[in-house]
Amino acid sequence: MIVVSEIGDKTFLIAAIMAMKHPRLLVFSAALSALAIMTVLSAAFGHAVPNLIPRTYTNYLAALLFFCFGIRMFYDGYHMTEEDAKHELEEVTQELQDKEDLELLQRAEAGSANADGNAQDNDVAPPKTRSRKQESSGLINLFQLLFSPVFVQTFVMTFLAEWGDRSQIATIALAAAHNMTWVSIGAVFGHSLCTGVAVIGGRMLASRISVRTVTLAGAVVFELFAIVSLYEAYYDV
Question: Cα separation of 46 and 63, whole Å?
Answer without folding.
Answer: 14
